[in-house]
Amino acid sequence: MKTDCSTERLNFGRLGRRRVVADFDGGDVTSDAGALLLREADLGSGLMSRFADCFTDFRNPDLIEHSVTDLVRQRVFAIALGYEDVNDHDTLRLDALVATAVGKTDPTGARRARAADQGSPLAARSTLNRLERTPANASAASRYRKIVYHGDAIDELLVDFFLDSARKPPEEIILDLDATDDRIHGNQEGRFYHGYYDHYCYLPLYIFCGDHLLCARLRPANIDGSAGSVEELERIVPRIRERWPETRIIIRADSGFARESIMQWCESNDVDYVLGLARNSRLTERLRATLERAKRRSEKSDQAERLFLDFYYSTLDTWSRKRRVIGKAEHLQGKSNPRFIVTSLNRRRARGQHLYETIYCARGDMENRIKEQQLDLFADRTSTQTMRGNQLRLYFTSIAYVLINVVRRLGLRGTHMARAQAGTIRKTLFKIGAVVKVSVRRVAVHISSTCPYRPLIEICLKNLRAGASMAR
User: Fold this and answer.
1) Do residues 278 and 258 touch, judged by C-beta distance below 8 A?
2) To 5 degrees, how large is the angle CA 249–CA 356–CA 304?
3) Is residue 389 in a domain?
4) How confident is the model at residue 7 (pLDDT cuts 50, 70, 90)?
5) Residues contacting residue 224 through CB under 8 Å, at least 6 positions apart
6) Does a structural domain hold residue 388?
7) What is the residue-averaged pLDDT of the chain?
8) Residue 145: which of 217, 92, 216, 71 has the closest Cα?
C-alpha cells in the first residue's frame, strides 16, 4: 500500500556485527493479499453482482468512475478484511491489490479522470458515505446522493442465496431466531434505553439456518425481543416452501420467543417449533417431585444429575391451548436448576431428553454466528444518523459474513478450519503481506516464501474453483 511516510531510515540497534535498519521504500506492499480469495469466492458465487442489483443508481453514467458493483465490493471486502469504518478507505483506496480484488481494470488508478485522483484506484470515504446516506426517495434530480438500496430485495437475496447453496432439498431444516443488543453512543434515530442491557442500543433480530444468514433486521430497543418474528417468518417460510415443498421446517429460539402469536402461526402453517420457556411457580411445582429425585441421585453420586419430565401445560390466560412441555430437573453444586422448553413436536418425533439436549441446546451455535457478526464483522458500527443508513451498514456486514461463509463452507471444506470463525479466517488467510507489481500484462503478487499458510491457501483456492465449476 502506498503511503506518504518519510523515507528516513529507522535504526533498531545491532544484531551481532550487523546493524538492524528499516525504511519506507519497499514500494507497493499490501497487508491484504488474501483478498484474492474473497475475489474467487465472489466470482464463483456471483454474490456481489446480485447484491449490487438490489440498488438503483440514478447517477449520470457518463460521469461514473465507480459502478455500484465496485462500491459494494469495496465496502464489503473491506469489512471482511477488518476495516470497519468508511474513514479507512481514504488509505485503502490506494491499495492496488484490493483494487484488483474489487475488479478494477486500472488497479493503480493511473487513468483516473481527475489529476487529483490519479494513483487512487478505489473510491474515497466521501463517495461511500453518500452511498450509505442516500434517502429512499432519492432520484436523478438529487444533488449528491443518488444510489438507493432496496431492503426488500436484499432480504430476498439472503434467503435465495441460502436456497441456491444446497445441491438438493434437505429433509429438514431448523431456523434459529435470536435478538441481541447493539450498543449505541450517539443520538441516532431509534435510540432507546434498554433496561435489561442497561444501556442505549438497537435490538436487531437475526435468523440463521445453520451457518447461513437469512435475516438481519435492525430494530429499536423499545420493543419485545420477539417483535416482528411472525412477519419475518411469513416472508421466509413461503419462499423456502416454493423451492423445497417437502422440507420440514422447525423454528428454534430461547424463551423470549415463546409467544402465543409465534406458536399459533407455526401451528397454522405446518411449521414446528422448539422454544425455551421461562420458568414460573406453576411449572416449578409440576417439576418438584422430579427435582427431588434428581437431588437424591446427586447426593448419592456426588455429581450433577438431570432427569426429564414430559407433560402438557397451558398458561392461565395467554395461551390458546395446551402444549407439550419438557422440564429438565437438574441438580448440581448443591442446588436445583429447573429449565423448560415448549414444542409442537410429538413424542413419536422426539423423546423429551433428546429434544432438550440434542435439538434445543444446539441453538447455542447461533450465538457464535451473532458474535461473528458483531465482534469480527463490526455489525455494531451503527453510528450513522438514520435507521435506514444503519440498516444498510447491517446489510454490508451481513453480506460480508455470507461471503466469508462461502470461503469457509466451500474453500475450507475438509480442512482443520472448516468450522473456523470469521476472525480466525481473516487472520489466517486474508491478512497476508505481499509485494504487488502491476505491469501491462499482469498483476504479480509476491507473497513470502516462508508463509506458513501456503498449503491452506492452495487448498482453499482449489476448492473454491471446484465449487464454482459444480455450481455452473
Assistant:
1) yes
2) 165
3) no
4) low
5) 256, 259
6) no
7) 94
8) 71
The beta strand positions in 301-460, using DSSP E, are 305-313, 323-332, 335-336, 339-343, 434-438, 443-447
pLDDT tens, residue by residue, 236-288: 999 999 999 999 999 999 999 999 999 999 999 999 999 999 999 999 999 99
Tell whether 54 and 141 lie within a shared domain. yes
Domain count along the chain: 2
3-state secondary structure of 18: strand
Say if CB 390 and CB 437 are below 8 A apart.
no
If asked whether residues 133 and 190 sit together in one domain, one would say no
Give me the CATH number covering residue 357: 3.90.350
d(CA 47, CA 40): 11
User: Residue 116: how many CB atoms within 10 A of its CB?
Assistant: 8
In a domain, 256, yes or no: yes
Specify whether 251 is located in the same domain as 305: yes
User: Does pLDDT of 34 surpass 60?
Assistant: yes
Same domain, 214 and 99: no
Q: How many CB atoms within 10 Å of residue 279? A: 15
The Cα–Cα gap between 55 and 76 comes to: 15
Reading the block at residue 90, the C-alpha cell is: 481514504
Residues 93 and 176 in one domain: no
Same domain, 197 and 127: no
Assess whether 232 and 354 both reside in one domain: yes
Which residue range forms the structural domain that includes residue 327? 152-376
Please indicate, yes or no, whether residues 180 and 218 belong to a single structural domain of this protein. Answer: yes
pTM metric for this prediction: 0.94
Question: Is 6 a residue whose pLDDT tops 60?
Answer: no
Cα gap 103→92, rounded to integer Å: 15
Q: Is residue 20 part of a domain?
A: no
In sequence order, which ranges of 326-436 are alpha helices (DSSP H)? 352-354, 364-371, 387-406, 422-425
DSSP 8-state assignment for residue 270: T
Q: Residue 95 contacts by C-beta under 8 Å, 6 or more apart in sequence?
A: 1, 2, 30, 32, 122
